[in-house]
Amino acid sequence: MTTGHRITIEASDARVRVVHGGQVLAESDRALVLRETGCPPRYYIPPRDVRLDLLTPSETHSYCPFKGTASYWSLPDAADLVWAYPEPKPDVAGIKDHLCFYEVEVER
C-alpha cells in the first residue's frame, strides 16, 4: 500500500441493516467494517445476509488501486446501489464477495 494510505478490516460488533424504499435488503450480525484513509467506514455484508433476489447485476465496474475492481448491482429505482470485490487485492482478501451498500443502519 502507498505510504500514508491505510485500510483495516475487522468484524463489526454492530448489527447492520439496509433498508431501501421500506424494504429490508440486508441484515447481518456478521458484517465486516472496512476503514480506509479519507473514506467513511464501510460495512461489507456476507451474501447469505443480503436479499440477492432483489438485486440485478449492473454493467458498471470501478477500479480502486488498493482494493481492486468492483462489480455493482442495482434495484429498479436505484442504479449501482451495491458493490463487491469478486477478486480483491491480497491486502483486503477478507472482503471477497461481501456486498457493500452506500447507506446502512448500524445498531450498537
* Ends apart, CA distance between termini: 31 Å
| Percent of residues in beta strands | over 45%
Find the CATH superfamily. Domain of unknown function (DUF427)
The CATH topology comes to Metal Binding Protein, Guanine Nucleotide Exchange Factor, Chain A
Spans where pLDDT lies below 50 across 5 or more residues: none
What is the number of E strands?
10
The mean pLDDT is 93
InterPro entries: DUF427 (IPR007361), DUF427_sf (IPR038694)
Pfam families: NTP_transf_9
Protein name: DUF427 domain-containing protein
Domain DUF427: 16-103
Structure description:
With 108 residues, this protein is mainly beta. The protein has a single domain (7-107), classed as Domain of unknown function (DUF427) (Metal Binding Protein, Guanine Nucleotide Exchange Factor, Chain A, Beta Complex), CATH 2.170.150.40. The protein is built from no helices and ten strands. A seven-stranded antiparallel sheet has the order 1-4-5-9-8-7-6, with no helix packed on it. β4 and β5 (42-45) form a beta hairpin. The protein is globular. 23% of the residues are buried. The mean pLDDT is 93.
